[in-house]
């Protein structure tokens, strides 16, 4: 392996010339984005700018119209088992949690490891309990999702994603559906993941999180990446008019 | 009353055949229903078309006509099954179309987020169905499935028309001897009712036991 592709600078996610259309609607325009191993990238931008679609193209929940996506140097396969295998390496945390309603929290977490990774049940349970411990809801292991608060559900969903030992974690507005008093319990988990070196792409309006944990902020508008920089630079001195405009709107609140 | 008690053994055999036909057919129809419902939501257009065609064909033909065709037309091209097997196949295929629609309705109650989360952890389409979508979709339609099973039970009486000696046919035969249609068919009717009540009870039990905690 060439030296520049190893260690911390190895590109974990590499997006080249990504374009996406919904019918006539051009929602992603010539997106280029490289995220290094261990890097935390926060994606911000106005509603409809394509943040969710970008995330979903990274694990092929949406198929891109043009361009390429590589995860840890491997292009995303088109369909079938190879795609399923690669998806297992890309964790995703959704705004609406999407825990499996008919399963206990523990079974939510062990489903992927036992069925996709073929880990034996006792071992998967043990790992799941350790993850629940880590996100602080070990006492909820045998509860069903509906019996948990939003913040607890989202932490369970993070544990479910972590159980696959993903190479990258995608977060699409993980705290937007939460009551304000529960936002921090989820953000704290994310901050600690970032500190432990997890590669993360986070769509969020939580500027506090961006300042605390992000290596880079990417600003999207109208399907394009308009600006990209260190959080302090971006918040203190956005270079583009559109970013200034966006920041002035969200920072008023 | 004597008309019934004098023929308990014939009627009993008929009842057993009805129960057997119902159980075998229910199992077959459920499997077919799940397969066809799955076809109808498959990502491949051809598979969806096959699923839709299946439902359209079998929901829009009378069961009696299907039974008669299967039993009398297939032998002309050299295919024969025992009568019970023929009836079971035809009724399962027919009720499978109704079950497929009920199951599809159940699948539609499962949010897209569930399927996306399943795919996102690397489950294949088949695994997502089996471990995430169907368990939730089926739970949502236990009641309608129970109703279809009761309709299926009643429809097994059409097997009489092609010579299967199930409860209705047995009652018919007894009536030919005794000429007491009211007593004989009230008895048979009560037996059907009892079976339907049992199916209803099982449905209710399953619904309570499998309810998703909300
Ligand atoms: N499945 C879809 N079909 C058609 N259009 C879609 C679909 N999903 C998204 N869009 C459109 O694509 C554009 C980008 O949507 P996207 O959800 O990626 O934006 P976003 O930046 O995540 O917005 P928000 O902040 O509101 O979540 C929007 O115009 C949206 O209406
Ligand atoms: Mg979005």
What's the CATH topology label of the domain at 17-164 in chain B? MetI-like fold
Shape of chain A: globular
User: Which small compounds were modeled alongside the protein?
Assistant: adenosine-5'-triphosphate, magnesium ion
List the uncertain runs of chain A. 1-5
* Succession of helices and strands of chain B: HHHHHHHHHH
Figure out the total of helices of chain B: 10
Strand count, sense and barrel status of the largest sheet of chain B are: none
CATH superfamily of the domain at 17-164 in chain B: MetI-like
Strand content of chain B: under 5%
Helix percent of chain A reads 25-40%
Distance between the termini of chain B: 51 Å
Q: Give the tally of β-strands of chain A.
A: 10
Helix/strand/pairing category of chain B: mainly alpha
Uncertain parts of chain B: none
Biggest interface, CB < 8 A:
A-B, 31 and 21 residues
Q: Which architecture of the domain at 17-164 in chain B would the CATH scheme give at its second level?
A: Orthogonal Bundle
Q: What is the element string of chain A, with H for helices and E for strands?
A: EEEHEEHEHHHEHEHEEHH
Computed Rg of chain A: 18 Å
Transmembrane segments (chain B): 21-43, 63-94, 140-162, 182-206
Subcellular location (chain B): Cell membrane
GO biological process, one term (chain B): amino acid transport
Protein name (chain B): L-cystine transport system permease protein YecS
Note down, in words, how this protein is organized.
Chain B: One of its GO terms (biological process) is amino acid transport. Chain B: Belongs to the binding-protein-dependent transport system permease family. HisMQ subfamily. Chain B: This is L-cystine transport system permease protein YecS. Chain B: The chain crosses the membrane at residues 21-43, 63-94, 140-162, 182-206. The complex is a heterodimer of chains A (253) and B (214). Chain A contains 9 helices and 10 strands. By secondary structure, chain A is an alpha/beta fold. In chain A, the strands form 2 sheets. A 6-stranded mixed sheet of chain A has the order 6-7-8-3-9-10, with helices on both faces. With 214 residues, chain B is mainly alpha-helical. Chain B has a domain at 17-164: MetI-like (MetI-like fold). Chain B is flat and about 65 Å long. At the A-B interface, α2, β6, α3 and α5 of A face α6 and α7 of B. The complex binds adenosine-5'-triphosphate and magnesium ion. The site of adenosine-5'-triphosphate has 11 residues of chain A, from β2 and α1.
